[in-house]
């Protein structure tokens, strides 16, 4: 996932970018509100999430959030030391999708990033968008939960389908093991890791595409879209 980090402190940005990169994010750093808005011009490179610090040198962060919302529906997570309820409500009313207060736990921040990303994917899938995911010769029918390869239906278990559909909604994006377990099995990572590995192996075998689901060592898995 491409992520726009809006942060004027270079040391903070460098440390956070390194953490995000280890978790599969492609981070672009903007040091001011103006840089952020230029990065979000229509037709420019798309971002999955904007991580917006409110203490910017050139513009008020709330003002930047309002401008971002006018030009894109990309999820915005505000990051600030302002912890009062009124500030949070103001940010949400301006169009922010979430609000993280400094100092924050990195794990919590990652969870919030993935949460707003999942919410956006769900809204796209249920808001009149495509009901079929097409990945080369692989077609995934979301309403009927049917998968076919080159026109031939492949019989998958419920969890195999859920796993494939989750990865296929964002080809190329790395999904953390913990996130997959939470989304597909609705439980914690502990004790379920081997189950995930077995299901990934089963999907590779049933679809006859060993390279379709790539293991990202130490992080999780991502779907590599095959050629059409």
From TrEMBL:
Protein name: Sensory transduction protein RegX3
Lineage: Bacteria, Bacillati, Actinomycetota, Actinomycetes, Kitasatosporales
Cross-referenced CDD domains: trans_reg_C
Keyword Nucleotidyltransferase listed: no
Species whose genome carries this gene: Streptomyces spiralis
Matching Gene3D superfamilies: 3.40.50.2300, 6.10.250.690, Winged helix-like DNA-binding domain superfamily/Winged helix DNA-binding domain
Domain of life per record: Bacteria
Residue ranges of domain Response regulatory in the record: 2-117
Keywords: DNA-binding, Phosphoprotein, Transcription, Transcription regulation, Two-component regulatory system
Gene Ontology CC annotation, any one: protein-DNA complex
GO terms classed as biological process: regulation of DNA-templated transcription
